[in-house]
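2024-03-11 09:14:02 DEBUG pipeline.ingest accepted 1 chain
2024-03-11 09:14:02 DEBUG pipeline.ingest length=289
2024-03-11 09:14:03 DEBUG pipeline.predict start
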Amino acid sequence: MDQYELITEKTEILGEGPTWDSRNQTVYWIDIKGMHFSSLRLGGKKIETLKTKGMISSLVPSRSGKLYATIGHGYYRIDPTNGDEELLGEVEKDIQSNRFNDGKVDPFGNYWAGTMDMNEKSPTGALYVYTHDGDLKKVLDHFTISNGLAWNNEKKKFYHIDTPTRKVMVYDFDEDCHLTNGKVAADMSHEDGYPDGMNMDSEGMLWVCHWAGHQVSQWNPDTGKKLQSIKLPATNVTSCVFGGKDLDELFVSSAKLTDAQTPNVSDMGGSVFRLKTDVSGVETYKFKD
């Protein structure tokens, strides 16, 4: 379980948001500060990279084959052949210290994404959804760093992280994008690092990445118990997605050390890791366009 393969080695500044498209057996990931996204078709050796016009913070596949992304303050449609960007909607243009952060598609084809305070101090962020009908609406607010998102396999629960709280919250969720009855699903306040991106496996367990914590951990959201931890040689582990032919490979992104962190030449931050897991994941949901 602890054995890993390097997809890329220390190439990303703020590597984030890996996503999987089973149709072309391709894993995608982004570099927020590097302002680009990359992809690798499994079995191939060439990594394709396309620049974006701003800080891309999430990237999702769609049912039509187009890619959708959050960049800066906006939702965009991206042509995967040339990187052309089409703005679909914007939020919080009056809060220049904010930007979009993590985002993901729900089981019904809607694109959820949250915003964050780039100074990481004020709860000026919110959670939004761009529906498959083209509506853009705010769902929750008062977040400092809106981060990991996941849905349970019965499509009735939504999980969300506001990183500084060091907690995973769970809400009742429905097809109309309503969230109610929020409560703590996992308290990570005694763990190393801070919860960042996350994903759900086929058994309903959450896989959470630890910023400043060197690991990906698996949690039972019904009991709040930590089940296992996979250590990685990167301090800032940022997000993960299940992929591969049998969805039993975990692709994990990471970020380079920040200026505030102690320099360490052996740190592998900025790499994308590939791990074989003992459980399968859930198919990445695609935006319904």
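2024-03-11 09:14:41 DEBUG pipeline.report Residues 4-276 form a domain with the Neuraminidase fold (CATH 2.120.10.30).
2024-03-11 09:14:41 DEBUG pipeline.predict end
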